[in-house]
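Practice set, problem 2.
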Amino acid sequence: MYHPLVNDPRKVKDQELEDKIRELSKKYHLAARMGQGGVCAQILSALDMYKEELDRRRVEAMENLANKQNKDLDDLINVD
């Protein structure tokens, strides 16, 4: 998803990404309590973009970890 007012989330560090998600979540809940539906929609758009990037990074990290572990086991199993 693309939000025109948000910079590319791929260029943001992990900690900054988590901070932005936390900040936008607070702003979303505040806007929702005030009945600002249009603002909520815009915040959700940006929030979804950051969450998707964080999920992508976590999946990539898990895949890298799994690949590393699989390579370590190759030397332990001898099939003759």
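Problem 2, part (b): a different protein.
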Amino acid sequence: MTTEATTFSTHIRGQDAVHKPFAKPTSLSRFRYFIEHTDWDEVILTHDEWIDKTCIVIIIAASLYLIPTAVAMLFLR
């Protein structure tokens, strides 16, 4: 559905009166609508256990990746 509006400049009798339709919602307004009107937080809570396990795996992988660098910095000076 398209809603249209007529906008006028400060010179009503001038040639700058423009007829343009309202713009489509921006991504920010669509994101705000999603946050305010959906149950996204409840969906996340239903996947809580899976998210926790994924975060633990990411932390372990990052630690294993960075431990050799930390050891080299401490002992190979």
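Answer key, part (b): Residues 4-75 form one domain. The chain has a mean pLDDT of 81.
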